[in-house]
Amino acid sequence: MLMQTPRSAFAASQPAAPAPMADLFDAFNLMGSQMTLGPNEEIFGEKEPAEYVYKVVSGAVRTYTILKDGRRQIGAFYLPGEIFGLEIDNEHQLSAEAIGSTVVRVVRRSAVMSLAERDGEVARALWSLTARALYRAQEHVMLLIKSAQQRVACFLLEMSDRIAATDTVELPMSRQDIADYLGLTIETVSRTMSQLASESSIGLPSARRIVLRNRRALNALNA
Amino acid sequence: MLMQTPRSAFAASQPAAPAPMADLFDAFNLMGSQMTLGPNEEIFGEKEPAEYVYKVVSGAVRTYTILKDGRRQIGAFYLPGEIFGLEIDNEHQLSAEAIGSTVVRVVRRSAVMSLAERDGEVARALWSLTARALYRAQEHVMLLIKSAQQRVACFLLEMSDRIAATDTVELPMSRQDIADYLGLTIETVSRTMSQLASESSIGLPSARRIVLRNRRALNALNA
DNA sequence: CGACCATTTGATATGGATCAAGCGATGTGG
DNA sequence: CCACATCGCTTGATCCATATCAAATGGTCG
């Protein structure tokens, strides 16, 4: 990925933030620079050195890996306000791409790390971020042993929690993205959604717009 | 779980370790107390407050959760030298049990945490532990979208890396444990192993003893 | 030896994958 | 403004990997 813009922008803003900082998230506002990405634009690649940490401002991001057989496994989706690309080792584990048109804030990983060395609260915030990612990965594991219906229902409920205060969810990702996250085919995801719609558990005013009509029924599917 | 023994033993040893400590793992030796567990003995339960952190001395441990439909998903296996039960929140995410007869070292979580507050190296070691758990959880996700053959082959190779320097692996866990880790049934695990044996990829001198005869073939399955 | 439990093996069923076609929205050129 | 191409999504038909149900085998411990 080409990263010339944030590099220089960050270098300029770094001297302005030497004091201890109560909140890691402030670091993004004070030290970060902003960049805009087009649909499907790569942010970083698997095995690349982890030079930056990112926070979604608007849009959405997917992390993924391509398996030997060509299938793509999506590790996670990141929505506005969420931080991604943080590694304790020097290498990214997964690749990251913007889903639609997306804006992210970027800070140098080395800056975040040295901040953490000076400030225990920041160190703890970083650890907490990794712990949250672990928690989500564990949930993801549990998702993958469920039936297609359960996976899709779980996914919609999770997206609803993360995106919308209301029962109408505007999904930022395609059916293929959902399929690759849930370990299903696009056909199965589509069929399952149609089925949930026919049971009136959800409404489908359009492909990307989902209405959760019966959360109880959706929840009932899950273990 | 009954925890009276470590509690008192730990209280006695705590005052002996106030100085900064180069390595988190030393904490287990200096501050920890040891406990012996019988087969299938519970170490902690899901949602229980995380009062201790554990390190396997001998034997093996599984963490797991029971889904609503009664199925058990094993999150991870822990082998001698490995640390488990560390949470950044106050609650355990998964339950933990000894697999066979197992010895663990135990230290109070609060002691580890306060050590981390004083010593940045310890804090980083704890974070690193969570990061490693995350890495494994991500590998686990990728495992679960593979075929039965691929899952079993992956599992055996991983166990070999972690248990044995040689090609003969003595598995500490049952077929049911393996099945619940891989998201398969016990029958499928058994059949798959028989099939790998018939292809001479592995040898099966006994159910728990696996000989990796052809690592290349096993690796070739994986993506 | 005999009981018990873990594992293996066999027969059948089924959920989701695969292959294939149809549909609907969006955009482009005539 | 409409014909038509494109792309993402849905729907249909069939196949296959793994689950399920059932029974046999083997190893361990009294």
What does this structure look like?
Chain A is an alpha+beta fold and 223 residues long. Helix content of chain A is 43%, strand content 24%. Chain A contains eight helices and eleven strands. Chain A has helices spanning 4-13, 24-31, 109-118, 120-143, 148-163, 175-182, 186-198, 215-221, and strands at residues 33-37, 42-44, 52-58, 61-66, 72-78, 83-84, 95-98, 102-108, 168-170, 202-206, 209-212. The first copy, chain A, has a four-stranded antiparallel β-sheet with strand order 1-8-3-6, with helices on both faces. A four-stranded antiparallel β-sheet of chain A has the order 2-7-4-5. Chain A has a three-stranded antiparallel β-sheet with strand order 9-11-10. The longest helix of chain A is centred in the middle third of the chain and has 24 residues, at 120-143. The termini of chain A are far apart. Chains A and B meet through helix 4 of A and helix 4 of B.
